[in-house]
């Protein structure tokens, strides 16, 4: 017996975006960073796109799906790397939720991307410090990692803006 | 149009709040390094005003210098006078505060089954390790001299108290508390600080230390030196009141005809104990930790667990001659290894 | 791009220098060496590149500062343990020549360890 689920076009699109996020997540895990497990947060591009088009709930799904599936595929599930990804994702989702409260036109993809990338890094860093390496020397890396996060946040924002145009034209 | 600027500020503020959630404020700490006690003494005091800290370090220096003066094993001191009397077999008056220290050392020596043996002062002087600067060209003592001394079995058990006077049943007994006095000294120094109302401090006398309280918002952080390198092997957090004592073969040694002789002598052979590189003991009392570090070093990788049990020591780390680390579960759980490749470590329970 | 976007990016960019100042403002980073001797205390930046002759009761201990590290090169003492200590580079590292009364410590505003046990 087969079970058929009714899926909408949006569902497919979200699934495709989640798959894209997972691919970026995996590519990112190969990037050398000074602190093992800490990522620049380029995968947030997808989270931001989903946020802009489908709202925060869908963005949360995509972000968490990316963390879980991505780590299962890389083989880091429940490892420190996974915990860092999860705290990063949760921190950026939290900040994005707050960002949605901005009245008026509020933020666009660029602002969301920057905020998400910074929050992602802060979350990961705090988790790394508190859970794994409570070493004061770690703090010397913090400004460097935040600089990297900002650069990736801006780059991600530009990519998101371009992608948004594509999606609109579709 | 509404002003999104203030909202942005709020978001950055929330980011900043996340940041401060795991940041710790810096604590004003008084730090002093001085030569006292024949060694480098570091005094670190936190959680008090500068004037009290200043008085605290003065008290510590005074305490340690006084101890050094009274217990000096070869320059004229109350201890050398006592040693002369003991060698003569005469019952002798001992200053009121010195007797309990000697008796406590006797207890520790008994518990260590004689591995910690401060009655072997003569063996140390045969080897020249009493001298602050041992002349490099002096060879090891003649094996006959060592054998002759050990045949007389000088031991803490030869000491007896009669009517408040101390007497030795063995003229070969010469007291040298080199492996014990640092421990007793940091105990007294911490006591002196506590009397001034100082609750957060470290007294580090030439690498052996006692720490009380904490450093502001966080525990004290102590690095244990790598016995085979300039850096730190492992670190340890201390909160409350604990001593960290290490005996290592790298502390004092000399080379003669290609052989290295270090200063931790095995009372059973009269020669430097082999098989161990260093022993670190974490314990409440400095005096006991000091004696135990020496005794466990001599007991070596085969027997240290039994000796630790007998001396009531729970937290031990031993680095053997091959560089392998052995640790009791209690201490192993607290050690953070600092190098990129942590050494091979075996966690063993005490019998 | 909205006005909020611009403000967020600008504020984030402005925040970075503050991060560098507060976490790198020589706090914790080994940047200074302090030499104690009978002559008193000498403080030198770790970036200096020089040899230092420090007088003690036995004679001159020679220290070398180079590329962010410091070591005893020569010492009039017998044991030569200070020389055996090798290079020191991290805040909190200490080497001492007890017979000659000379110690050298690498410090930052926040040392790695509160005490070194040996």
Describe this structure in words.
The complex is a heterotrimer of chains A (170), B (351) and C (118). Chain A has a single domain, classed as Orthogonal Bundle (Arp2/3 complex 21 kDa subunit ARPC3), CATH 1.10.1760. Helices cover 73% and strands 0% of the residues of chain A. Chain A is built from six helices and no strands. In chain A, helix 1 (9-29) crosses helix 3, helix 2 crosses helix 5 (109-132) and helix 2 (44-54) crosses helix 6. The longest helix of chain A has 29 residues, at 141-169. Chain B is an alpha+beta fold. Chain B is 36% helix and 26% strand. In chain B, strand 1 and strand 2 (39-46) form a beta hairpin. Mean pLDDT of chain B is 89; it is low at 1-9. Chain C is α+β, with helices and mostly antiparallel strands and 118 residues long. Chain C has a domain at 32-107: N-utilization substance G protein NusG, insert domain (mini-chromosome maintenance (MCM) complex, domain 2, Sandwich). Chain C has helices at residues 3-24, 81-84, and strands at 32-37, 40-45, 50-56, 59-66, 69-74, 94-97, 102-107, 115-117. Chain C is elongated. The mean pLDDT of chain C is 81. The interface between A and B is medium-sized, with 21 and 14 residues.
Describe the strand arrangement of the main beta sheet of chain B, using strand numbers. Answer: 1-2-6-7-10-13-14-15-17
Query: How many domains is the backbone of chain A divided into?
Result: 1
The whole-number mean of residue pLDDT values of chain B reads 89
Number of strands of chain B: 17
Beta-strand residue percentage of chain B: 25-35%
Q: Tell me the span between the first and last alpha carbons of chain B.
A: 77 Å
Identify low-pLDDT runs of chain B: 1-9
Measured distance between first and last alpha carbons of chain A: 37 Å
Estimated helix fraction of chain B: 25-40%
Instruction: Return residue spans of chain A where pLDDT drops below 50 for at least 5 consecutive residues.
Output: none
CATH architecture of chain A: Orthogonal Bundle
Largest sheet of chain A: none
Outline of chain A, from the CA principal axes? globular
